[in-house]
Amino acid sequence: MEHINIDGIEDIKLENDKPKSPLNTINQDEPDPLNTNNKVQSKSVTWSTELTRESPHPSSLPGYVESTSMPPRDNNPYVNASSPSHPQSQSQSQTTSATVKNTVSTVKDVLGKWGKKVGESTKQAEVLAGNVWQHLRTGPSFADAAMGRIAQGTKVIAEGGYEKIFRQTFETVSEEQLQRTYACYLSTSAGPVMGILYISTAKLAFCSDNPLPYKVGEQNEWSYYKVVIPLHQLKAVNPSISKVNRAEKYIQVISVDNHEFWFMGFVNYDSAVKYLQDALQARFLQSVT
């Protein structure tokens, strides 16, 4: 039995370049489902058919390539890479994924039970459960995504929390403070890359959960995929949803020199939108003072 904490869902247990813009999206202002001031009758969460039905695999989109290799940088100044201290092989990753049995039904059952515990706010439970489901199926493999979340949760505990991981992963200044972290995916020309988005008082930063392979001659090398955008380089933060599947929600981040980054598969989407827009507002305030 494994324990994992995903963006505000406590103690969930599970058993055994140049990015392409997502298609068919529209800007969307949504009410905050995390507001528990609204009086809602306590009841258990039910799974809608829209949420649990099988959706077309992302590979059906034009130009999609699975993120099994390092995406090209395309001369993007905000993208960089770093080598892992203990590279993992492709066979190790496949072996780990093979240990997940009946992942879909297990996650369904876990989130359903969690929803009953959060009965004081049914809307909150349904939204978060739906976001978790969408997060896990955004990547090429549902099982790999579930195992990735477990591995990330274990890493956070082992290394002393996101604050320490953030300072070990990125260059920081002494007065810089980490404000929020969000499990999500970054859209790249090589497909969606799963990782953590960090929002600090100085920057937005993303790092892939796992190192990705790339070729150096005939050898396979491994590197984490990173994006770092200083707050003073932020130009816009645009939330959007898919016209085809409203469960698919995105956040477009644009730099002052017009580099675009698309983030998707958030567990706490509305919170991420709020804090990213707050970071943008802070940038504007700094520029006029």
Automatic annotation (TrEMBL):
Composition skew (Low complexity), residue ranges: 82-97
Polar residues biased stretches: 22-50
UniProt biased composition (Basic and acidic residues): 1-20
GRAM domain sequence ranges: 164-241
Region (Disordered): 1-101
Origin: domain of life: Eukaryota
UniProt xrefs under Gene3D superfamilies: Pleckstrin-homology domain (PH domain)/Phosphotyrosine-binding domain (PTB)
Annotated family: Belongs to the GEM family.
Full protein name: GRAM domain-containing protein
Organism, scientific name: Coptis chinensis
